[in-house]
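Entry 14. Ran structure prediction on the chain below.
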Amino acid sequence: MLVTGPNGVGKTNLLEAMHVGAQGFSPRTRSEPRLIRFGEEAARIRLAGESARSAFETQVDLASGAGKEVRLNGAALGSAEELRARLAALVFTPERLAVVKGGPIVRRAYLDRMLGRVFPSRSDIAPNYGRAVAQRNAALRRVRAAETGLDSVEPWTAQVAALGTQLDDARSELAALLAPGFARIAGALGLHDALLAYDGAGLTVEELEARLPRDLERAVTGAGPHLRDASITAGGRELRGFGSQGEQRTAVLAIVLAEAELLAERRGEPPLLLLDDVFSELDTERRGALLAQLPEGGQTVITATHPPGVAEPDLVIAVTPGEARAA
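Output, structure tokens:
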């Protein structure tokens, strides 16, 4: 599906609403009151479709000063995470360039969100590890303040080591599964010799104990996957510091499409793909190459100010201020 219209008429808002309806959160902001139209007190998003050959309908209600309500087929869900476990949707927006050009914390967070989608049974490893590190850091602060002894740190050291190794292993496995598709898709889009890698060496109690004096001095845990980074390169160059904006954009697109392939393989159907303004920096040949990489059998929604000039979309939606209709 192609969504067209001039800049500023609401194409990205439509894409964002579809993501909220499918995943329960916005890909552009974590401040949910900002999703409500100016001058209004509430917003409602309804999305209907088909997944695993079964019809579904979602509803997400947002209200100023109140909690978010998420429903699937009329039944209230305890959290948006439950919706994401049932429906898969991936999005590309210009803000997603931060996955490549941003700091390590952005790539770690992106990898960990992918873990929840690709390995649902391991979705709690990253948050559990984060809580264990926070508890160990709190114990380190108490020891440094002479409020307690070193024995209060030991149980958290063991948990941080165990969960850290699990998280490193999961991230490494995910990167290894994504890497072939990422390299192939990036190459098709003109970014050759692209490599996605994560070096998760694991974490041991001995490593943490060896650096305990330094951790006590700083009151933080100074080793583990909360400090690691994923490597995204092309031609041996780190794209974060040595890639052009076009190369960084291509790399993020390749990551999104590689994950779409992986999810289609593991779940038996492709995810909903939401691609915002992906044609703006691509020539006609690259636009055709991008469309050729879209997973078969799924639905892809692409926004553009004008038709891309390659392939005929199944449906064209024309957006004007306050209205979207089939062209």
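The chain has a mean pLDDT of 94. Will compare against last week's run tomorrow.
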